[in-house]
Amino acid sequence: MRKKRIQIVLALLMTLFSVVEKNHAQNNIDDTETLTEEQKHIIPISAFTAQGNQENLRSALNEGLDVGLTINEIKEVLVHLYAYTGFPRSLNALGTFQSVLEGRKEKGIKDEEGRTASPLPANKTSRELGSEVLVELVGTSEASGVREFAPVVDQFLKEHLFGICLEEMFWILRREKLPLFLPWPV
């Protein structure tokens, strides 16, 4: 189950960041590097959430559940999308998902709940975790540029985006020796 969750998180990262390494893709394509059906269904769920297209999202959510995504896997995707699409889109998507689940339950469809997300380490705050991720990414956690100009952005990035959303994904990528490309300067 952990491997499946890691694969889903990696698929989400690839979708959100448009991570495509041309040489890697051309030189290392084999059957083990293709997306699973579950991972493929994260892409339209993410895209329709980002667009705010609730009608198509409803269909994508149903299809994702039909191919085996669990309720908690989809919830995690929708929650993590807040950092990229904004709270309103993420919250609207979660509301749509809740409605989809209610409709499926009324039809007698029992969807798998799945595992809940791993908790953050108890011995560190999200700010400490985010600072560590920043050091790994850019060599320092000291604010500069926009993060220095607007210190609250530095706080949000360290505590929320890097400390909560990306902390687990970052360490998975590092362990698997995969690149992480961010679409913005830090």
TrEMBL record:
<dbReference type="InterPro" id="IPR003779">
    <property type="entry name" value="CMD-like"/>
</dbReference>
<feature type="domain" description="Carboxymuconolactone decarboxylase-like">
    <location>
        <begin position="32"/>
        <end position="95"/>
    </location>
</feature>
<dbReference type="InterPro" id="IPR029032">
    <property type="entry name" value="AhpD-like"/>
</dbReference>
<dbReference type="InterPro" id="IPR052512">
    <property type="entry name" value="4CMD/NDH-1_regulator"/>
</dbReference>
<protein>
    <submittedName>
        <fullName>Carboxymuconolactone decarboxylase family protein</fullName>
    </submittedName>
</protein>
<keyword id="KW-0732">Signal</keyword>
<feature type="signal peptide">
    <location>
        <begin position="1"/>
        <end position="25"/>
    </location>
</feature>
<dbReference type="Pfam" id="PF02627">
    <property type="entry name" value="CMD"/>
</dbReference>
